[in-house]
Write a structure and sequence with these properties.
mainly alpha, single chain, about 140 residues, elongated
Length: about 140
């Protein structure tokens, strides 16, 4: 399930030029957002694989919410918050609107990537500790 679809903020035929026209600057912001999304998707896939492996260790009869369900719910909520904070494109938003929205989303996406990466590392460390304690 892909949760990070990047809207088209710039024309695909326009190359990034940070000192160029507004459309070229929009292309730069769009490229930055795409890179941030790609990195987040990679870390999210790792986190999802880890969550699935942790779920496989739990009692299927348990009433606890699965790690996969918790991760999906948290990610969907993060997307809603990001989109509320950064806004949505509108017809009357002005020439810099696309750049501002894409830049905001890219920044928040990079922050979320680091947050997920940290949570994943903590989860892996806790799982390793639990395994080593269980083998003693």
């Amino acid at each position: 399930m892909l949760l990070f679809v990047t809207p088209a903020f710039a024309d695909d035929d326009v190359a990034c030029n940070p000192d160029g026209t507004q459309m070229e600057m929009n292309a730069c912001s769009s490229d930055d957002l795409q890179k941030a999304d790609d990195e987040l998707n990679a870390v999210y896939r790792e986190a999802m694989a880890f969550a699935k492996s942790e779920d496989a260790k739990t009692d299927p009869q348990s009433d606890d919410e699965s790690a996969v369900a918790i991760l999906k719910k948290a990610q969907r909520e993060w997307i809603r918050k990001r989109d509320r904070k950064c806004g949505q494109p509108t017809a009357d938003g002005g020439s810099m609107q696309s750049t501002e929205i894409a830049s905001c989303r890219a920044e928040l996406t990079q922050q979320r990537t680091e947050e997920l990466r940290s949570l994943l590392e903590d989860g892996r460390a806790a799982a390793a500790d639990a395994e080593s304690e269980g083998s003693n």
